[in-house]
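A note from the maintainers: we've had questions about how concatenated examples are separated. There is no special marker in the raw files; a new sequence line simply starts the next protein. For clarity in this README we add a label.
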Amino acid sequence: MAASIVGSGELIATTTLGAEVGYVALWMVIFSCFIKPIIQSEMGRFTIATAQTGLEGFDKVPPRKVIIWLWAVMTIITQLQIGAMYAGVSQVLNLVFPSVSVNVFVIILIIITLFILLGGGYNRIEKLAMIKVGFFTMLTFTAALLLMRQPQYFSWEKVSEGLKFNLPDDGLKTAVAVFGIVGVGAAELFMYPYWCVEKGYARYAGYTLLRDGNEVNRAKGWIRVMNIDILASMFIYTIATIAFYLLGAGILNGMGLMPSAKDMIKVLSNIYTKTLGEWSLWLFYLGAIFTLYGTIFASTAANSRVFADMARILGRFDADDYPTRLKYQKAFTIMLIAIPLAFYWIFQSPVQMVLAGGIAQSVMLPIIGWGTVYLHHNYLPKALKPPLYVTIALWFASILITLLMSYYVWMKFIS
């Protein structure tokens, strides 16, 4: 999850928002990191408690099948973000090897990704992704600390202004996109129950499969593990997100720079070179490659599993037919690599591609929130329901997300 989150949202969207509006939207970045994990936790609780997948649960929310198809549309749109990540990695490689064009590097990366994911090498990539998240987060956090020693780019007065719940007028589109991507985005909320299954959190714990008196305690034990998992990843991506935003608001906004289609990586590299020194340019290149490419793997691997499950729910194969599920998963892997490539060739603007995917995720967030509320009240076994304060927090998060998205729609299309 952390590998999927610390990617285009932080490196591209969050720094772009900071560059565009300065410190004013700091509160929204923090709010985005803290408000959505409660929904993530309750989706994971549903999977552990019922031994049903996330899409299987949302299929129960009336009207039937609507959320499933909305998820599919959102995921296709979010492939714009994946296309942007291919472009970002290729831009870095082109800076290192100028004789090879960005477009050629995109094709090379597509081939490598197909080979690794279809060849069953994702587990190895997952371990590398864990290392890259820790490395890049530590490095970016260090850069943000050094930023505080540069009064021309940073002041605590500006930080306090950014915590006053003001929405930026000029950067509202970017702010909403950041809200959809940063922290646990709508895409990750759908992914997470599948990782719970894949990692074994729901194994032998489904309440509907009761065989002995230990089943409830086993399920509660896995829910505790899941919540520790969620808190750990939230700690990591919140630090990374705030650091990226401060660097964008301080360095890029202070220099009057905005990441754009052709020079995105060159502009973003200033967040390291102006804090750590010119020597850190190569560290930024390395970190950008690992961060963006790791997110490509995490996202494609997860979405291919969810799409395969969607095919099962729509009646294409039986739940216990694992060979057929694997065939669908591989077919969707190819599709999820081809679509970002097509989007890249059409748009070739990484920043705008990331923002478009972020808005699609933002629009989906209220639907996910209220769908989770419905499952929480109608399908969670009584023995595994959380304390009352968790239920209140779930309602609170869903209401706030809905209000924020309603405000965006009003400002953008009505007022």
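[label: protein 2]
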Amino acid sequence: MTRLKKKDLEIKTEFVEANGLNFEVQICGNQDSKKLAICLHGFPEHAISWRYQLPVLAKLGYKAWAPNMRGYGRSSTPPSREDYAIEKLMEDVGQLIDAAGVEETVLIAHDWGAVVAWLFAIRQVRPLSKLIICNVPHPGAVSQQISWAQLRKSWYIFFFQLPKIPEWLLGSRRNHGMIKETSTFPENYSDEVMEIYSQNLRRPGGLKAMIDYYRDYFRSGMKRQRDIGFPIIEVPTLICWGEDDMALTKATTYGTEHWVRNLTIRYLPRISHWVQQDAPDEVNAMITSFLSGSSVPQMIWESRLVSIEADTKTNNEGKGDSE
């Protein structure tokens, strides 16, 4: 494992120009490294969602970058729906990789970032050594696994197609607590992190930009990509999937092996959609093993029987102590 100074493991912020825009990028590790790990966040998140992974990637010898995607944080926020076409989002990632000046790239992505990452790998926009996906299904696999259960979970996508109303409704919340409220480990989200998410929500034009990802993709972008077709991905791929996902069913991952030549899937029981923030130790262990070529560990949930008498005694002793 690469030896780094303490300062190299601190997460800092830089701005990088790419694809005609200015991107706010959280960076970590030796920035002279010729290996890049680029992490793409989802909706309605921020680059801060990779706070647990960036130092780990730095220790593995990567130049670790987590950009705020267009329309998020202090990155450029173009005004029109068409500015968030999937093709432009893929090219953003390609030109960020170019700007990094590296010889090897690992792409790691969650939620909307993972939509971009799947298609980036399918279209071979730039060479990748490995691909890591968190809680978004392959576009070909999901098309064969649509069910009533999934449609019920996807209600918000249809709601987001309405003009202005979604922005008004989400903007009426001063504090953006949705991520923490739907997490299975809310203690992993400090007040400082939640304030960053809230500020992200309140940026002028930010909410429209975030929702325009959905508007453009589900009105036209998805069909454009489907019409081209989905060739098999040759890049070794790891999926880390929190099973308690409020937006996507586990079944949407079934059949992914038909679309990816070298696939590893690890399901994380009792972990929410926000998998890399809910279970950072487990996800980091999976990422580390995958990138180092070792066997990727599985997460299991242990069921235990506890004596009622012992449990009652413990509770009574605790009450006595407090009194």
